[in-house]
Amino acid sequence: MSTNPSIDAVRWLNPDQERAWRAFLRITVAVQAGTARDLAAIGLSEPDYEVLSTLSERPGHTSTLGEQADKMGWSRSRLSRHATRMAARGLLKRTPDPNDGRGCFLVLTAQGLAVLEDAAPAHVESVRRHFIDRLTPADLIAIEQIARRLEEPQASEDRPVT
Amino acid sequence: MSTNPSIDAVRWLNPDQERAWRAFLRITVAVQAGTARDLAAIGLSEPDYEVLSTLSERPGHTSTLGEQADKMGWSRSRLSRHATRMAARGLLKRTPDPNDGRGCFLVLTAQGLAVLEDAAPAHVESVRRHFIDRLTPADLIAIEQIARRLEEPQASEDRPVT
DNA sequence: ACGGATTCGTTGACATGTAATCAATCTAGC
DNA sequence: GCTAGATTGATTACATGTCAACGAATCCGT
What we know:
Chain A has 162 residues and is mainly alpha-helical. Chain A is built from seven helices and three strands.
């Protein structure tokens, strides 16, 4: 098929492996696209929702920027920029940290909380519709198991390739 | 835990479902991050690799922009922008389409082909290391099955929510 | 108390993705 | 065969994320 012999010579994955890998790639884009589209319909992006949701779970709906970034697995830079945009939309606000002159708190505003309360049930419904309800209980267990295997540290993880 | 009663009242997923959903989110970021990092080490992004790889499979290493975009599931805009950047790096070039004054061909350059030939084995190795080799054959089959279920059109897919 | 090292958050330069836009082509009706 | 509207092709404005560098505040050994 290919006009390029040297590429054809590459030892690729076997058919089962290849299908699984491509299936995996398709799954991720399909599900994420579905849930993201549903959230967009109510004026939130997936990152927006994550910020609102995780902030709402903290006492006083408050967290330092760094702590929040770590908890979400985001860079500080990313959260700082995103918080600025969300603050401009009135969803949260910054407050100086009395204990650390360098730091700042992110605080959910009343409006931010209201938006989240409106969005949360819709988002859960979306996750059900695009993911949970389409799978069997056995599938859900399989996914957990796969996650566990993928997260297992590998013996040769950080060894040089040579 | 939460100081906000109304959020707690949201009917969330049951524990099994919740764990599966979170596991799914973790899986996608972990695997994609792993393979993307390996590609970045040899100077390519994941999208770069996709373009090189799919272009190399066509006769003359050539395709119209639109056809290529469709085949990859990308928007024309996205591919156009990406092609411009890759052209600036010498990986491919544009040629006018004699049959359609609006259109253009994307053609892999010799350098682009060389880069791909260098990258392909490394990428396959990366997919193995971050994904295939960590899973059992049964896991791979489960993933295909899950993909099939997720891609099945749902009866009430496009019905209004009300 | 002092001074260097570290940490916090922000910002500038840049890469990348999506939505709006402009231009060329096709097509139906005359 | 010509023209107006719809369709299709590709590029440009805008939003968002990353990396590196920075100023300010804090920590800590002396």
